[in-house]
Design a protein that fits this description.
- This protein is of the alpha/beta class and about 160 residues long.
- It folds into two domains: about 70 residues, Transcription elongation factor, GreA/GreB, N-terminal domain (Helix Hairpins); about 80 residues, Transcription elongation factor, GreA/GreB, C-terminal domain (Chitinase A, domain 3).
- The protein is about 40% helix and about 25% strand.
- The strands form two sheets. Strands 5-4-3-7-6 form a five-stranded mixed β-sheet. A two-stranded parallel sheet has the order 1-2.
Length: about 160
């Protein structure tokens, strides 16, 4: 079984989502199904079918979260340091074409969220950055085309 690297913060976030889905969403959906069932004929009952679909989606996500949490390898970012980019690093980059500054933290796949500056260790940008130092230039081949960045800063913790 392959381990999934993640930060402590990412692990806690997944645990919170699992707890919410099990303790709040599941009972609410079961109540919706019971209520829709009481309306009679199930074959033409849109509320019933919508509630059953919501239940299926919720149970699938619960199973996915349980799997990810059971395979989680929590990496303590307070013990990660150095002068090369690795898991947990927050990297400041300058786009060599536009001079635009970007900041990304390299995290596990389940906690990645580009909008908040967290990129997955398996993403093209993270793979290009791993092992590089401040001052290095990196070429990132992404779905939108190639980009060149210069590493300005690497921070841990």
């Amino acid at each position: 079984m392959e381990k999934i690297p993640m930060t402590g913060e990412g692990y806690v976030s997944l645990e919170a989502e699992l707890k919410r889905r099990q303790q709040e969403d599941r009972p609410r959906i079961i109540q919706q199904i019971a209520e829709a069932r009481s309306h009679g004929d199930l074959s033409e009952n849109a509320e019933y079918h919508a509630a059953k679909e919501a239940q299926s989606h919720n149970e699938g996500r619960i199973a996915e979260l349980e799997d990810k949490l059971s395979r989680a390898e929590v990496i303590d970012l307070t013990k990660v340091s150095g002068n090369t980019v690795k898991f947990g690093a927050t990297v400041t980059l300058i786009d060599e074409d536009t001079e635009e500054e970007k900041k990304y933290q390299i995290v596990g796949e389940p906690e990645a969220d580009v909008k908040s500056g967290r990129v997955s260790i398996t993403s093209p940008i993270a793979r290009a950055l791993i092992g590089k130092k401040v001052g290095d230039s990196v070429e990132v081949i992404a779905p939108g085309g190639g980009k060149s960045y210069e590493i300005m800063n690497i921070k841990f913790g």
